[in-house]
Amino acid sequence: MTLAIDWVLLLPALLPAAAMLLVLLVDAAVPGARRVMAVVAALGLAAGAATAVPGILAADERLTLCTAAPDGRCLWDGGPLPSTLQAGILLATLAVLALVSVRRVGVVDLTLLLASAAGGTAVVASRDLGTWLVTLELATLPVIALVAWRDRRAATHGALTLLTTSLVSFGLLVLGAALWVLGTGDPTLTGESLAAAWAAPERRPVLTLAAVVLVAGLAFKLSAVPFHAWTPPTLTAGPLPVAALLASASKLAAVGALVVVLAPWESVVGANPGPHALVSVLVGLTVASMLVGTVMALRQTEVVRLLAWSTVAQAGWVVLPLTALSAAGRGAAVAYTIVYAVAALVAFAAVRATHGPRVEDHRDLTAYRGILRRDPVAGGTLALALLVLAGLPPGVIGLVAKVVALGPPVAAGLWPVAVVAVIAAVLGIAVYVRWFAVLFGRPDDASAPVRPRRRRASVAVAVVGTAVIVVLSVLPQLLLGPLA
Amino acid sequence: MLLVPGAVGLWLVTGGRALAPATARVAALVAACVGGAVAVWASVTRPDVDRAWIPSLGVRWHLDIDGISAPLVVLTAVIGVLVVVHAWVEQPWLDEAKSTPDGTGRISERGSAATYLGCLLLVVTGALAVFAARDALLFFIAFEVVLVPMWVLIGRYGDPHSAAKRADASARFILYTAVGSTLMLVGILVLVTRTGTAALDELPSAAAGLDIGTQTLAAVLLTLGLAVKVPVFPLHTWLPAAHTTAPTAGSVLLAAVLLKLGTYGLVRLPIASVPDGFARIAPVLAVAGVVGIIWGGLICLVERDLKRLIAFSSVAHMGFVVLGLASGTELGLQAALIGNIAHGIVSALLFVVVGGLKHRWGSVDLDVIRPALREVAPRLGFALVLGLAAALGLPGLAVFWGEFLALVGAWSAAEHTGLLRACVVVAAVGAALAAAYALRVARIVWVGDAVPEAELASARAATPDTRGAELAVLSVLGVATVALGLVPMIVLSVTADAAAALLGGSR
């Protein structure tokens, strides 16, 4: 079997992998050259993101890794949707790299970050189960190691939770993949093979089961309820930059993986009978995540835990447009996740700039009283990020993202989920405004944390992220255009 | 028109926080005046701005002013200037501890003046954008723009006596209105996804092809969402808290501008786009409006806090507006539009007076025995009486026309005639209630109680009469009240064509 390969399309995934090898080589040749290694890693990520840009802007199909005709199948999609996700994953990883202090970053951290980024960029573009499974695990496993890497008991506990979860999730994914192959007889994830198999009534239960099991496995990675239990302990126990990675790049990769799995189902959504069971499972995930995540976030006072629960709630918002099983829904989900990832990164960077990188720094809401006056840069960026997460102007892009996410289910007539989204949106405003309100007010010097000494990189990440938010708020088309 | 106050407002909130209050005030005033002047000019010349913004969502920067929005734009522009001028009178950014029990008289800054003024400007900008938007999604986004600045105004610059009250009122405000606007968003999305257009000009014809079920659904969602903002009877509970706690300028903006967003939205979205669906739920709305009139009136009879009282009278007045809208007649629609403007002016006038009194006395509890306002501060007293007389619907003053025409319009409705006529009768009783509570307030505050001569002198010292900027604000509002009452045609003639087109075009 020969494969027609267009290497240019593979570059977004290949460059981080190459950078990883280069980092290892440098470490072997000149041990201790941390700065060089960090620069190599950053360049690899930035170059990868740059090579994804043509894909974002492309109008025609960009498929590669195609098998020979007659039944030529392409295993790699470099179109706008995957390319946008790739750029997002790589830039988010770059931001996380900046949050990890350069002095402390070691070869292990760099290698793991780059491996995770390479896996993430590959999974969103893959179109066959083999690549999809392997790269999805490549995106996940290094993050577990990153959580555990710093030798602290709490972090190990968090990593163990994540590892157990990941193993269960992996088991489910393999089972789902096997069921898919059983149902369609085809290891590629395409609409044609699904539509052909769906025509046979006796295959429908197997296909539905395959999709449900795959979605369940991915729900772990998305931290959607009821597969979310690992999220709060892991995010709070691990280092702050890794928490930011889990909330941004990992989430983007998981959404990309979900989009790949759900895309074939668009071919049968209009069929009779349609994939009702799958839609109900997605609706259930959405509703549960939005409500549980928001209500739990309302009660938190530790800011990272609050952000962790809010990431659960936002997972519901991400799945919301996918319940419609339409191309518009896919685009909306990706757009929403990108906006969420940017805002979450800004929030984490601002938290990092306010406290130190450790868990022991009392990361409590009271530490933020009057921060807008005490520390306008960190406070201002955090305020805007919270408004984007809440979906309130002046964080216009957050509002637009909510509008975009709500559109497909309303168009598909999924009323229950739209009603729950209304409730969740309002509760969400309560969550973020609760924190936002603390930012105002009189500075209270007694509860103010000592400003960490090395925080230039965190402030830079927060400011750049805020700039992205502002630009997108003025011109949302920049994000939405390629995804439409 | 939007750019100047919006940009200056943003700048004041972000960059200019450290600015001296005096400079910030002048900058804000200039911005409000320029923005207001351009808004007035725009509502006369009616320019049409139409640019693509988010093509993939079909959202356009489509701004245009027609007969329905023109009076509201002018009202907003004038109120915008007045609230900024009012910053010379009341300075909510200063912490005034002189009226607290410990009486230390300590004055410290509790927030920056620039933020306060910036928020005022942003609210005005958002409101102008709502009135000018000709795109349903742009309308929604502009609708949301006013939320956060208003929340800051209430939560940060509100009643200095109780932080808990401020937090409660501001949280209630933002959550209630967020429920409303999200419901409205779902309604808008129903329309947009089913018709394929977000342009308000095209929606009526495009939505006419929808089946009645979808129309009703969209109408219910839109009306329910906007009813929170108006507010219509069972959804009004956020309003008194917000009004009581907000600084005077905030109350004025709330009453004169924000509530109008709700009624304007009702005219623009459900009534214009899905008239058949709206007609189905109109009786419910009419009943809710009438219940609001009675409920508000009854509470006003016993309410002790003067600011809350005015807030409840707002609920009652908006009941008349809603009744006019629900009648489905051209006259009713006209009544609603003029009622809107009149309520905006009169409630602004009353809130300035009452806010001024609260500022002077520290509280506006009606049970506290105070000397007659007419003796202590005759000019302020006159403004109060004028406002109350207008509020009770005295002919010759602004509110009269809105209430009268709403009743006539509802009486002559073509559909649901019996129910609407019953509503008219009950609403007329409500109007009598308005007279009762207005006279109650006038007796307590204006006529006052007999107090010894010595106390009178000290009261005079404690309650200086209005002058300067406050007097200017009051006189503009007072003149507008009388002018609109004597010559209602200045508004009616502008809205007539648009109202006829709205109903005619959709039937």
From TrEMBL, chain A:
It holds the Pfam family Proton_antipo_M. The keyword Transferase does not apply. It is a multi-pass membrane protein. InterPro entries: ND/Mrp_TM. One of its GO terms (cellular component) is membrane. Its main location: membrane. Keywords: Membrane, Transmembrane, Transmembrane helix. The keyword Aminoacyl-tRNA synthetase does not apply. The chain crosses the membrane at residues 6-26, 38-59, 79-100, 107-125, 131-149, 161-182, 206-230, 242-265, 277-299, 306-327, 333-355, 376-401, 413-436, 457-479. It is found in: Endomembrane system; Membrane. This is NADH dehydrogenase subunit N. The lineage of its organism: Bacteria, Bacillati, Actinomycetota, Actinomycetes, Micrococcales.
TrEMBL record, chain B:
The chain crosses the membrane at residues 68-89, 113-131, 137-154, 174-192, 212-232, 244-266, 278-302, 309-327, 333-355, 376-398, 418-439, 471-494. It is a multi-pass membrane protein. GO terms for cellular component: endomembrane system; membrane. Residues 133-420 form the NADH:quinone oxidoreductase/Mrp antiporter transmembrane domain. Belongs to the complex I subunit 4 family. PANTHER family: NADH-UBIQUINONE OXIDOREDUCTASE CHAIN 4. This is NADH dehydrogenase subunit M. It comes from Knoellia remsis.
